[in-house]
């Protein structure tokens, strides 16, 4: 369903499990950034009532995910820690093409869909490969949610695209670019690292 061109090596889960405090802290910050992204998109297109309503739900769900991750961190006697830089996301951000307002919004939707797709895939890798059963179950649940967000952002891109903007073609370009970017990652205990 995700159509990612380069799957994560399952051994990345071993790296992540080697420092669960770090992966959970990074994950918590990813959820906060996803919340902020949904809110920023609402600011960009308030006149689209149905999309704004869906984005509001996504923002609430992402914030709920942050709270769940934070609760796990606290239950294990750890603290959240400082925000982590997400080089993967920064690399993807540079791929967005400039254009008019509508074009930028569609690019932003594809950018968000790409992040959700990789996060979903990483959550599946974690749920299938880590020995910590509580976290395996937790990541399986989140994987389903992230897949839903991925689909929503792609649908928004199709809905908002102006005539002449080929979303399917552009999405293929995103998938190709992301495959090149992700080759540099998968070596650290971060969700996208």
TrEMBL record:
Organism placement in taxonomy: Bacteria, Pseudomonadati, Bacteroidota, Flavobacteriia, Flavobacteriales
Source domain of life: Bacteria
Pfam families given in the database record: MiaE
Name assigned to this protein: tRNA-(Ms[2]io[6]A)-hydroxylase
InterPro entries (UniProt xref): Ferritin-like, Ferritin-like_SF, tRNA-Hydrxlase_MiaE
PANTHER family: TRNA 2-(METHYLSULFANYL)-N(6)-ISOPENTENYLADENOSINE(37) HYDROXYLASE, TRNA-(MS[2]IO[6]A)-HYDROXYLASE
Gene3D superfamilies: 1.20.1260.10
Species, as recorded: Flavobacterium ardleyense
Family annotation (SUPFAM superfamilies): Ferritin-like (SSF47240)
CDD domains named in the record: MiaE
């Amino acid at each position: 369903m995700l159509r990612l061109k380069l799957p994560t090596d399952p051994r990345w889960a071993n790296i992540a499990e080697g420092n669960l405090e770090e992966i959970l802290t990074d994950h918590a910050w990813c959820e906060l950034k996803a919340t902020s992204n949904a809110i920023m998109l609402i600011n960009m297109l308030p006149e689209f009532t149905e999309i704004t309503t869906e984005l509001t739900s996504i923002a609430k769900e992402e914030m709920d995910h942050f709270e769940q991750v934070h609760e796990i961190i606290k239950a294990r006697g750890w603290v959240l820690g400082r925000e982590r830089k997400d080089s993967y996301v920064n690399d993807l951000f540079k791929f967005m093409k400039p254009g008019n307002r509508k074009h930028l919004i569609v690019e932003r939707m594809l950018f968000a869909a790409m992040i959700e797709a990789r996060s979903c895939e990483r959550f599946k890798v974690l749920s299938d490969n880590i020995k910590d059963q509580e976290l395996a179950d937790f990541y399986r649940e989140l994987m389903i949610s992230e897949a839903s967000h991925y689909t929503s952002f792609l649908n928004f891109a199709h809905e908002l695209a102006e005539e002449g903007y080929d979303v399917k073609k552009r999405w293929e370009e995103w998938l190709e670019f992301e495959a090149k970017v992700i080759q540099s990652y998968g070596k650290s205990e971060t969700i996208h690292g």
